[in-house]
């Protein structure tokens, strides 16, 4: 079950569970009451770093691009009001939207953006709160959408507030595949993509290193690049309990197989070892697919590893980066 982003932020029990899942370790500089928030920041930065690497290295494969500063934004009104004091002590928040984390070496970091900077204005336009009555990601979503709609090849002019001082910075242009990325806090090994957002369960970051987790992130990003949600909808497939049956199961299986193949190339283009994909499924596939109880919309982990080995063997010896694999051409084909 996917946990909505705002609930992942506002649920005190879920946040405390994150620290437990991450081994009960209190991050450096955190106190017992701020530890869940600090742990959430650490996981968000890990996902953001993987996502930045994949989306910028594969920009040439994507039709929809957006500015990719290499950061994580969040809004004060995403959090439970009962946590307000801990949230401010952990994240600052001198305004409605702040920088939660920054990708090391990314454009935002090079421009001097730091975690806990408050985002005051984008290209001179003030950042305002959504004013919803309950914890919601609406404010954050509006700012992220505004940035994503800007020209990907142009620098991003920002006004920040840091320690009571306004700072003007210009983030260098950094086009990347247009997709949002979110961590879902909870005990399940869950990952999904809906054409707009890639969501990855926090459990992956507990169990696996970043190179291994990147295999899952690349697979979900591949779904978005290949337009699988829109193509499945156009084919009028049934979801839920009917998703594994007949034509529904066959078409879902095809999208999963294709996402595996493209995901491997996304990894390679981003400088990851492509062999990490079949290696992941051989070592950890049982954790993900449920073994004999797996959904029949997915191949077995063994079959996935074998298909990925075969795909690696098909990569031309002189293939550069970014390489455009044949599976990319399927994104315009109806599913039938």
Describe the protein.
With 336 residues, the protein is of the alpha+beta class. Helices cover 43% and strands 15% of the residues. The protein is built from twelve helices and eleven strands. It has a four-stranded antiparallel β-sheet with strand order 5-4-6-7. The chain has a three-stranded mixed β-sheet with strand order 9-11-10. A two-stranded antiparallel sheet has the order 1-8. Helix 3 packs across helix 8 and helix 10 crosses helix 12. The longest helix is centred in the C-terminal third of the chain and has 24 residues. It is globular, with a radius of gyration of 20 Å. The protein starts with a helix and ends in a 22-residue tail after the last helix. The N terminus is likely disordered.
Uncertain regions: pLDDT < 50 for 5+ in a row? Answer: 1-8, 10-14
* Subunit arrangement of the protein: single chain
Query: Strand order within the widest sheet?
Result: 5-4-6-7
Estimated structural class: alpha+beta
Total strands: the figure is: 11
How many helix segments? 12
Q: How large a portion of the residues is in β-strands, by DSSP E?
A: 15-25%
The level of helicity is 40-55%
Distance between the termini: 28 Å
Largest sheet: 4 strands, antiparallel
List the helices and strands in order. Answer: HHHEEHEHEEHEEEEEEHHHHHH
Report Rg: 20 Å
* Morphology call: globular
Mean pLDDT: 89
């Amino acid at each position: 079950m996917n946990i909505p982003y705002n609930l992942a932020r506002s649920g005190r029990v879920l946040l405390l569970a994150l620290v437990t899942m991450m081994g009960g370790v209190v991050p450096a500089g955190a106190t017992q009451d701020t530890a869940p928030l600090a742990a959430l920041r650490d996981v968000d930065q890990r996902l953001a770093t993987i996502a930045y690497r994949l989306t910028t290295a594969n920009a040439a494969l994507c039709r929809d691009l957006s500015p990719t500063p290499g950061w994580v934004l969040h809004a004060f009104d995403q959090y439970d009001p009962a946590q307000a004091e801990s949230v401010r002590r952990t994240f600052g928040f001198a305004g409605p939207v702040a920088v939660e984390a920054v990708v090391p070496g990314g454009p935002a970091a090079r421009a001097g953006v730091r975690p806990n900077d408050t985002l005051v204005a984008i290209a001179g336009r003030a950042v305002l709160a959504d004013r919803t009555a309950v914890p919601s990601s609406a404010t954050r979503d509006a700012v992220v959408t505004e940035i994503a709609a800007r020209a990907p090849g142009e620098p991003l002019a920002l006004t920040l507030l840091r320690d009571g001082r306004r700072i003007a910075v210009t983030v260098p242009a950094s086009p990347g595949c247009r997709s949002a990325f979110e961590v879902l806090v909870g005990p399940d090994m869950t990952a999904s993509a809906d054409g707009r957002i890639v969501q990855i369960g926090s459990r992956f970051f507990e169990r696996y290193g970043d190179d291994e987790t990147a295999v899952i992130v690349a697979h979900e990003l591949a779904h978005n690049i290949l337009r699988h949600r829109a193509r499945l909808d156009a084919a009028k497939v049934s979801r839920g309990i009917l998703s594994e049956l007949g034509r529904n199961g066959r078409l879902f299986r095809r999208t999963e197989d294709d996402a595996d193949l493209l995901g491997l190339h996304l990894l390679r283009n981003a400088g990851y070892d492509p062999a990490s994909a079949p290696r992941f499924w051989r070592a950890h596939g049982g954790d993900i697919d449920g073994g004999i109880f797996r959904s029949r919309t997915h191949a077995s982990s063994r079959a996935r590893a074998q298909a990925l080995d075969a795909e690696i063997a098909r990569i031309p010896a002189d293939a550069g980066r970014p390489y455009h694999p044949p599976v990319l051409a399927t994104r315009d084909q109806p599913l039938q």
